[in-house]
Amino acid sequence: IKKQVTLLINPGDSGRSIRKKVSYSTIYTVIAIATLVFATFAFMAINYSRIYYKALRAEILERRNLKLEEQWRKITRIEKDLALLKRTDKKIRNMLGVERSPSPLELGSPEITPLPEQLETPFGGAILVKAQDESSESTAILLEEIPTLWPARGWLTRPFSSDHSGVDIAAPTGTPIVATTSGIVTRSGWDDIYGQIIEIQSDRGFVTVYGHNSRLLVKEGERVKRGAVIAFVGSTGLSSAPHLHYETHLNGKPVDPMRYLVH
């Protein structure tokens, strides 16, 4: 039995033929190596496709998770807004002395109670609500001059009391202070107790006071809109730390600002 194979290589007219003897073991070795290389590449290709598919699926799942998280955040914000709307509606009705009418659903009607036309969150603009009266139809009331806005973002450190005619809101120096009502600036300057101070008179009898400011942005006689930045938190006057001293006066008498601020 022959154990070798003779390979004849004929280069053509330009040269002699070449004879090469190759053993069967060499041929088998070459075939085995080629098969192993092919199998290795095939295995790598299959694994790569699996890894790519898993990575693609993981990316799709991650995108879905991000969308779900965003939707959850939106739902959470909506729930907070709804809770704020309920508190706002209750506080405004208390201020106006308007009782809440029974809901059509409570009366067995298939109708749905309409939402107020416009409400606001703290640091927003005007509030427009429906005030219902037993003897008249619902009337749209513009409440720009009722101080329901928080004047600054911070922490309530001292409440209203018989010996403290306002509330103190602690906040870092430079925190914006906004007008809680629309009205005319009746005072903008220096006070020996409250330092840099601003007073705003609204047409509905409210006067709001902002004290210990670091810088004033409005002048006396200027008309300001509700929510406009009028000053920055500071520690001027008789003050030991940066904070806003905020007062609300109604018809010349100091009242607790918390009666009107929407929480």
UniProtKB/TrEMBL annotation:
InterPro entries: Cell_wall_metabolism_enzyme, Dup_hybrid_motif, M23ase_b-sheet_dom. SUPFAM superfamilies: Duplicated hybrid motif (SSF51261). It comes from the Bacteria. The keyword Cell wall biogenesis/degradation does not apply. Keywords: Membrane, Transmembrane, Transmembrane helix. GO terms for molecular function: metalloendopeptidase activity. The chain crosses the membrane at residues 27-48. The keyword S-adenosyl-L-methionine does not apply. Residues 163-257 form the M23ase beta-sheet core domain. Coiled coil: none annotated. This is M23 family metallopeptidase. It comes from candidate division TA06 bacterium.
